[in-house]
Amino acid sequence: MQVGQTLQAMRRATPLVQCITNYVAMNIAANVLLAAGASPAMVSDAEEAGEFAGFADALTVNIGTLSPPFVAGMRAAIAGAEGAGTPWVLDPVACQATVLRRRVAADLLALKPTIIRANASEILSLAGEASRGQGVDGRDSTASAEGAARRLAQRTGGVVAMTGAVDFVTDGARAVRIAGGSVWMPLNTALGCSLTGLCGAFAAVAAPFEASVAALALFAVAGSRAHGAAEGPGSFAPLFLDALHHVRPEDLDREARIEGLEEVPA
Ligand SMILES: Nc1ncnc2c1ncn2[C@@H]1O[C@H](COP(=O)(O)OP(=O)(O)OP(=O)(O)O)[C@@H](O)[C@H]1O
Ligand SMILES: Cc1ncsc1CCO
Ligand SMILES: [Mg+2]
């Protein structure tokens, strides 16, 4: 898969990505998008979110710090994105945890996100299967949730980009596994939320499956590079931002560890 070419297209476009994300992720996700080559804007209030989504290149919706004003903003923005034919990405943070989260995640899922980016525990929950997630942290392996991810993709018609020690991306028929990254990534809060924003940036320039693979591959390669120079989760964070910025398209093609899986009938 031409992940390098997709990275080059993303950087050339510098896509405007509207991020409705949580209070924890706001700053981290914006820096991740800027370092990678996109243009983030954290615009979430219902009074302007729909208007903004009408001209943004992509929209991302994250339920990490959920409240009624956020939900109103999400609904307005998704309507604006759909009106404009703009791709949108759902990040169902801790959707297994509470009644409110389960309900809002199900409502947003029914609006058919272009891409769902989540950890394995969240994917299992969205697919209606038992999840061991603890709060926002995933506790299930992606290997145990590959079937759930495929079923979810088939049910929604979108792409599922599931992350963990090994990532898994599927559109319900095609699927790949992506290796790499660092054990210090889950010890840095909101990196998954930031990756959701990056999926949006790539979806602005590529089809959802190819966009998801490129975004996850860039994180995996940058994470592996940063790991080699870091001493722990703290020193990893700035090295990871540097790596996101410095990985060139040809580096991504050379270093990405993407395993294509046999296609299953949709
Ligand atoms: N054990 C691991 N080894 C290597 N990379 C990992 C590991 N766990 C997660 N990652 C990587 O970390 C990034 C974020 O994925 P993760 O599954 O932790 O998201 P998340 O649980 O939604 O995070 P958050 O909610 O804190 O934003 C992905 O690029 C993923 O590949
Ligand atoms: C820690 C945390 N709490 C709500 S959202 C969030 C960021 C990681 O998902
Ligand atoms: Mg998450």
UniProtKB/TrEMBL annotation:
Its cofactor is Mg(2+). Substrate binds at M42, A190. Its EC number is 2.7.1.50. Gene3D superfamilies: 3.40.1190.20. The keyword Transferase applies. Keywords: ATP-binding, Kinase, Magnesium, Metal-binding, Nucleotide-binding, Thiamine biosynthesis, Transferase. Coiled coil: none annotated. Pathway: Cofactor biosynthesis; thiamine diphosphate biosynthesis; 4-methyl-5-(2-phosphoethyl)-thiazole from 5-(2-hydroxyethyl)-4-methylthiazole: step 1/1. It catalyses: 5-(2-hydroxyethyl)-4-methylthiazole + ATP = 4-methyl-5-(2-phosphooxyethyl)-thiazole + ADP + H(+). Signal peptide: none annotated. One of its GO terms (molecular function) is magnesium ion binding. It is an enzyme of class 2 (transferase). GO terms for biological process: thiamine biosynthetic process; thiamine diphosphate biosynthetic process. It comes from the Bacteria. The keyword Acyltransferase does not apply. InterPro entries: Hyethyz_kinase (IPR000417), Ribokinase-like (IPR029056). ATP binds at R117, T163. Catalyzes the phosphorylation of the hydroxyl group of 4-methyl-5-beta-hydroxyethylthiazole (THZ). Belongs to the Thz kinase family. HAMAP family: Thz_kinase. This is Hydroxyethylthiazole kinase. It comes from Pseudooceanicola spongiae.
